[in-house]
Each structure stands twice: as C-alpha cells, then as structure tokens.
Amino acid sequence: MADPQPWRTPRPAPNRAEIRSKTSTPRVLVWLWAWWPTIVWAGVIFLLSTDTFSAQHTASILESILRWIWPGVTPHQFAAIHYFVRKSAHFSEYFVFFLLLYRAVRGRRRGWRWTWGIAALLCAAGYSALDEIHQAFVASRTASAYDSLLDTTGAFAAMGVLWLWFRWRGTPRGVEVATGETPAA
Predict the structure, then answer these.
(1) Number of domain units in the chain
(2) Is the pLDDT confidence value at 34 over 80?
(3) Percent over 70 (pLDDT), the chain
(4) 156 close to 91: Cβ distance less than 8 angstroms
(5) CA nearest 33: which of 111, 123, 108, 87?
(6) Residue 136 lies in a domain
(7) What angle do CA 136, 137, 142 make, to 5 degrees?
(8) CA nearest to 128, candidates 104, 147, 141, 115
(9) Is residue 14 part of a domain?
(10) Distance of CA 150 to CAs 23, 57, 69, 73, Å?
C-alpha cells in the first residue's frame, strides 16, 4: 500500500546526545557539582570542632592505638605526640579544604588563576576564623588565634603546591579554557 501523504517525511526523534548538546545544564546543578565537596568538607571541619573531638576525647583513642604500637611510651612522649597529631590535623584539614575551595571557585574552567587561588585562600582563612569562634562556645574546646594561623598556613601551603603543580604541567597561566583544551600558541 502506498503512503497516503508522500510529501510528509517526519524527522526522527532526536537522541539524548543531540538534545544534551543543544541544551545547557541548569546553573544550580553546575553550582552544586562544583561546591558539594567543599560544603561536605566544611561540615567535617565543623564536626571536628565539637566536643567529640576535643583533646580529652582524642587522647584516650590515640593513647590506646599508640600503646598497642609502642607499649613503652612515657606520658611526656605521649603528650608530645598527641600535640603533634592534633596540630597536623589542623594543617592537613585546611590543606584539603583549600584544594576543594579552589575546585569550587574555578567551576568548569581549567588551569590556574591567581584570583581563584587568592579567593580560595581568603575563604579558607575566613572559615578558619569562624571555626575558632565556634570553638570558643564549646566548653571542652579553646579558641586559639595560633590554630587559625596554622589552618591558614595549611591552606597557603596547598596554594603553593597547587600553583607548582599547574606550573609543572605547563597549563597556560591566566588563560581560561572552558573546554579543557590548550589553545594553540
């Protein structure tokens, strides 16, 4: 049987890839994709600032682990190790926080820009100050400007390492490349 309407040739329905290439991702989803790890890590930092992770509570856990590894540890040695572990946690948690902040600030763009690094550093330093203010209101914690400085130093060290990494990779500095491809020189 012949087609009753030969002039009508319906276009096939578009496939998913074709639709996706012609529509942009909603801005909220792009923002969430960039910022959710940073927000989760900020929550972890907040949790670590509570009474549960005060020096009194972490001492008992660390002491049992350390006595299992090194049974002859003296109380003076344990106090020094406990202090070092706690201060290393400050440094490392803000090292990671800076990396996540940098990822969030730059969004879908690639490469290194000083403005992104400084913005992430200032956010980390501000959050560090707010974290110490939070600790002032927790009975078993003490707020310390030195801890905030140590946190900011961890973020600053992360900025230096990230800058060196981008420089070593040969990523063009100051060039925003949305597609991830290096522009022709």
Answers:
(1) 1
(2) yes
(3) 86
(4) no
(5) 108
(6) yes
(7) 35
(8) 147
(9) no
(10) 45, 21, 28, 27
Residue 140 one-letter amino acid: S
The conformational region for residue 52 under phi > 0 = left, psi -120 to 50 = alpha, else beta, is alpha
Can you give the residue range of the structural domain that contains 38? 30-169
Q: Is residue 71 part of a domain?
A: yes
Threshold 0.85, pTM exceeds: no
**How many C-beta atoms surround the C-beta of residue 84 within 10 A?**
10
Q: Which residues of 116-142 are buried (b: 16+ CB within 10 A; e: fewer)?
A: bbebbbebbbebbbebbeebeeeeebe
Greater confidence, 21 or 155? 155
pLDDT, tens digit (0-9, with 9 covering 90-100), for 88-143: 999 999 999 999 999 999 998 999 999 999 999 999 999 999 999 999 998 888 88
Residue with tokens 């959710």: 36
**DSSP secondary structure of 13-48:** PPPHHHHHHHSPPPHHHHHHHHHHHHHHHHHHHHHH
Q: Confidence class of residue 173 from pLDDT cuts 50, 70 and 90?
A: low
Tell whether 87 is covered by a domain.
Answer: yes
In which element (H, E) is residue 58 found?
helix 55-69
